[in-house]
Every structure is written in C-alpha cells, then in structure tokens.
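Q: My labmate handed me this sequence with no annotations at all. I'd like to see what the chain might look like in three dimensions before we decide whether it's worth expressing. Could you predict it?
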Amino acid sequence: MSSKRQRKKIGGEHLQRIIDLCTSIEEKGLDPFLVDVEDILEVVREYFPEWELPEELSLDAETIHRLASIIKLQSDWLKHRSTSLYTDPFLIEEKIRKLTKVELANLFLEVWHPIVEFEQISPHSLTEAIKYWQGLLPIDERWLQTGPQKREAGTVTREELIKQKILAENTFSEDLEAFWDELKEKVGANEKILYWDFVGANSYNETIQRAYLTSFLITYGYATLEIDRLEEEMFIKPYEKPVSMLGKKQVVSIPVSISNEEWMKWKRGLQN
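A: Here is what I predict for the chain of 272 residues:
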C-alpha cells in the first residue's frame, strides 16, 4: 500500500508540473513547441490507472485541458507561419552554407537591383535654361556699383546695449564664480551635496540652466563629481580653489540625465 501511495504522490507531482508549464507558456506567450505533447501523453497514460479519488481525476482532467490549449497554440503558430511565408532562419543559414561560391554569386546577381540615375539634356531643360538667361539683366546693370552711404556717427551707453541684449549684464566667468560661491555656501560644513539637491529648482528650465553651469564648474576644476555606485547617488564636492586637471589624470565624461521625468521625480521626493 505504501508503494502505491508513493506512486500516486509522484504521479500527482508530475501532472502538477505539466499544468504549471502549460499555464506559464499560455500566460507569458512563450514558444508552445517547448512542450512535447507525445511525452506528456505518455505520462498521463502511465498514471491514469492509479487514480481513484475525485481530486485525482480532476487533476488528470486539468492536465488534459491544459495540454489541449497548448496543442491549439501550436496549431495557431503553424497557421500564422504558413500564411506569412515564414521561413526558419536556421534553414536559410543551412541552405546558404551548402551553396558554392559560384552559386552564391549567381544568386546575388539575380536578386541585385542597383539604383541607376540617368541624366541628360532634354528639350525641356534647354528651354528652361534659355528663359533663365533671357531674364537676367545685362552685366553692366547687375554690377552697378553704388557709393557708400553716409551715416552720422552716434554714441550708445552700456545700459542700452544690455537692454538690447547685445551685451550681457555679467560675463560668463562672473556667473560661474557666483554659482561656485552658491555651491560652497550650500555645502557649508559638509564636504559635499547631492547632485539633484543642488541643481534642482522650482522650474524645469531653471534646473536645466543650473545643470549646465554645474557641468562647467566640474570641467574647469571648481568642483568634482563623486558617484556612490552602491547607493546609486551622485554628489558635488566644491574645491576651495580651482584645480587644474591638465596632465594629472585622465578626464572622464559622465553623462547625467536631466529629463523632465527625473526632475518630476525629484520634486515629488521633496514634497514627500
């Protein structure tokens, strides 16, 4: 009796594994031919005489039901491949390998359709050219020189040039120095600050501008970027004096995503 119970237990486990496999293939859209239908039917036939209880027969019926679903998926797969003239890439590769060099060259010539452009002078193009030249003014009129126009000299103030945006109110170096001072002030007694806590601003456009200036702080040696790969965090550490990296070590460019999604994620983090 104990051996019979053991056989029933093993058979039930086999059927349950078959059900789980079929369910996984259906739900995840895997290749239905991963299931060998004939082998599974052999397993079902082997253990079917052992079943006596209703739950055992129910498990057997569930196995057959799942197997029928897999057979339907296999049938649909074959219909789709046949209607779309699908050819297995391995079969194509095998055919190509069997071809000789001459056969392969002839096959290439048969399917090769190079694009050829043919240009020539046509009566229409000649007519258009004549119309163009006839419409041009004589050379002496086209090359008519005009004397320089006299203008009275005037003056303009620096404030007017700034107002007209011809001159910037501050130079780029002055803006960079001010941004560097802001970084050192925000860091305070700490040695560094989180990258997004420094470049992040109330608006996305201002965040982009701050990230742009930060890249120059790092490039020109006003600060350095530290990355904690374990915690996936970036920090900015300012220097007391600008440090030249020329000749000291290889400079590595580190791309940082400043997308609108990243900015929104940072904003939600502040609100929480």
